[in-house]
Design goal:
Layout (H helix, E strand, L loop, with lengths): L1 H31 L7 H8 L3 H8 L2 H13 L2 H10 L4 H18 L1 H13 L1 H28 L9 H11 L2 H10 L4 H16 L3
Helix pairs in contact: 1-2, 1-7, 4-8, 5-6, 6-8, 6-11, 7-8, 8-9, 9-11, 10-11
Length: 205
């Protein structure tokens, strides 16, 4: 019985190691050639596995993209985003949420950019995963806007719908990338710029 448990654990650890190796190879490929479609054969060769193994582990090319997206969401910055969402003061949630989102995008900007680009070029493969991430972000910005309104934190004349629309723009990857990559701002400067823009446009002093 003990040997069987050991064998099962060893197989599970081996399977997880293979899965991790494939994900890392996919990350590396996206960083090296972000404008090219992700080629499963190249990923398999880089990971040192057969092409069939990639499909065995992830089910399909789309499944590989799903796993990449899920892996990105498990990182520390995403945990901080969830913590910010739970803060009782909506203004604290706004500041913490924007900062955590910037840190999440900054953790692996080339990969995130490639995934967003591919969602437009190859929606059948990756679009579903990005679409779900964006739908979650849309719901989150709408909730935050309502909370700001309920707590009397919005400027006179600014509605919850107005706030949700602006937060949608300011928390997106494009806004981050324009400042971080386009203007060369640091991660802290990018977060501060976006937070200040949101507070000046939306909240009372």
């Amino acid at each position: 019985m003990a040997k069987r448990r050991y064998d099962q654990r060893a197989r599970a650890e081996g399977a997880e190691e293979t899965r991790r190796r494939i994900l890392e190879a996919a990350y590396a490929r996206l960083r090296e050639a972000p404008a090219e479609p992700l080629n499963v054969d190249r990923v398999a060769r880089a990971a040192g596995v057969a092409r069939s193994t990639v499909y065995l582990v992830f089910g399909s090319r789309a499944g590989l993209f799903e796993a990449l997206g899920a892996d990105l969401m498990r990182r520390d910055a995403y945990a901080r985003l969830l913590e910010a969402v739970a803060l009782p003061d909506a203004r604290d949630s706004l500041r913490g949420g924007i900062r955590a989102g910037v840190e999440m995008f900054a953790a692996d900007t080339p990969v995130v950019r490639a995934l967003y680009t591919m969602s437009r070029l190859d929606p059948e493969a990756v679009g579903g995963m990005i679409q779900r991430i964006e739908e979650e972000r849309s719901r989150g910005t709408a909730r935050l806007a309502r909370r700001l309104a309920e707590q009397g934190a919005l400027r006179p004349g600014v509605t919850a719908d107005d706030a949700a629309a602006l937060l949608w723009v300011l928390t997106g990857f494009d806004a981050f990338d324009l400042l971080r990559t386009g203007k060369g701002l640091s991660v802290d400067e990018t977060a501060r710029t976006l937070i200040e823009a949101a507070e000046r446009a939306l909240t009372t002093s």
